[in-house]
Amino acid sequence: MSAIMLSAKEAAAELGVRVDTLYAYVSRGLIHSEPGPGRARLYSAKDVRAFRQKERRNLGGDQTNESLVIHSAITAISDVGPSYRGRLATELAGNAGFESVATLLWQCEGIDPFSELAPDKPLENLPASLRGIERAMVMVAAWPRGDKSAYSLNKKILWRHGAALCRVVAAELVGTRPDDLPLVEHMARAWNITNAGHKKLIAAALVLSADHELNSSAFAVRVAASTGAPLHAALASGFGAFLGPRHGAASERADHWLGLMLDQGRITETLEEQLMLAQDLPGFGHLVYTGADPRAVCLFNLLHDEFADHPFVRMSVQICEEALRLFGLFPNIDFALAVVRRVLELPAQAGMSLFCAGRMAGWIAHALEQYETSDQIRPRAIYTGPRAI
Question: In terms of DSSP H, where are the helices of 59-208?
Fold first, then answer.
């Protein structure tokens, strides 16, 4: 019987490593490879599985690798988008407010933590040079200054903290003070949005941003929570991951690129130049979805309902068509948020602000779920450097 051979992608997936790491194993003679069809190479399934078992033993057994898998009942992702505890986010986006989605994710058992009075800001007079996202991060870290129960891990107190911190963060993101209004009303008022249809678009953006399973920032929150860190500290960890240009700040990159597109007025030519220069396309493609990002589709449908004849909405359709033709990529939620910001004429960084204000609900849900377990998240690395002599 002929030996079973794997492609590079299959072998790397079995090992849980990048393809570059697989090549390093092959170069050191740890895994056998042989020529495949065309210029490809094939890799021995027997060697791959033996190496995987050896690494597991070196790491202390299969139980260690199991720590890399986190079991969660918060959000499931499928081709139709995220579902929050069994409720499709794209359906909630047109019918539910941020607060109801937050309490769904937190499993508040009929208690409404948003019925509490809004908290005071823990700090005053932050430097004006800080962006809203950075002010929010500072306020979260300073939470114990105004709340003596900040270190409590009691579930009902955590619900109350969660609602209060959502209000504090949203207020900092739009440059106001926390109040008792629903988040969509608070943010709309700060941005001088009075039209009901426009508010519905903001509400949908918040709901669609609420959670997306184990993304980088949610994982950071869970790692911190798994050590027993208090809620504000776990959220500060999430902010650190969120600020990266590949995650929460991706809408800023998409918005900047859209601004250049508007200035030049040359959609096809600009995209062709991006392609020839091998530059990426901010706001297009996704690590999870191979097709369209259902959250982006939902936002675009609402945009078309409210702004069918808006020139920038029509322009965004052309951009998406050309991006698909040239790059084979669909728009993601970052691009959709950038379009929402432009169409509603919101301030700079409003796309990231909507994403962050919404994602607070998911971060808190992940912290709450992690507190319910006794597990500390402690992954192990598969060492690929030189071996000791």
Answer: 62-66, 89-92, 98-106, 132-141, 155-174, 183-190, 196-208
Domain CATH for 183? 1.10.580.10
Structure tokens at 384: 């690929």
In a domain, residue 376? The reply is no
Tokens of 227: 């050590």
**Whether 34 and 158 share a structural domain:** no
Contact 370, 225 (CB under 8 A): yes
The structure tokens listed for 372 are 């319910």
Q: Is 67 helix (H, G, I), strand (E, B) or coil?
A: coil
| Amino acid at site 217 | S
Residues 86 and 141 reside in one and the same domain: yes
Residue 39's domain is classified under what CATH number?
Answer: 1.10.1660.10
Q: Exposed (0-12), middle (13-18) or buried (19+): which is 348, by Cβ within 10 Å?
A: middle
- For residues 203 and 80, state if they share a domain: yes
On whether residue 210 sits in a domain, the answer given is yes
Check whether residue 212 and residue 257 sit in a common domain. Answer: no
Structure tokens at 382: 């598969």
Catalytic residue among 147, 293, 334, 366: 334
Query: What value, to the nearest 5°, has the Cα angle with vertex 358 and ends 356 and 362?
Result: 100
- 226 and 307 co-located in one domain: no
Of 186, 198, 212, 286, which is the active-site residue? 286
* Buried/exposed code over 251-273 (b: 16+ C-beta within 10 A; e: otherwise): bbbbbebbeebeeeeebeebbee
How many whole angstroms separate alpha carbon 280 and alpha carbon 335? Answer: 13
Is residue 264 located within the same domain as residue 304? Answer: yes
Residue ranges making up the domain that contains 295: 250-344
- Please give the Cα distance from 352 to 137 (Å, whole number): 13
- Residue 263 shares a structural domain with residue 367: no
Alpha carbons within 13 angstroms on the beta-carbon side of residue 63 total 3
Give yes or no: residues 227 and 265 share one domain: no
Q: Among this protein's residues, is 334 annotated catalytic?
A: yes
User: What was the pLDDT predicted at 384?
Assistant: 76
Range from 218-222, 268-272, 365-369 carrying the lowest mean pLDDT: 268-272
| CA distance linking residue 233 with residue 239, whole number of Å | 10
pLDDT tens sequence across 224-282:
999 999 999 999 999 999 998 888 888 888 888 888 777 777 888 888 887 887 778 88
Half-sphere CA count of 161, side-chain side, radius 13 A: 28
Global pTM reads: 0.82
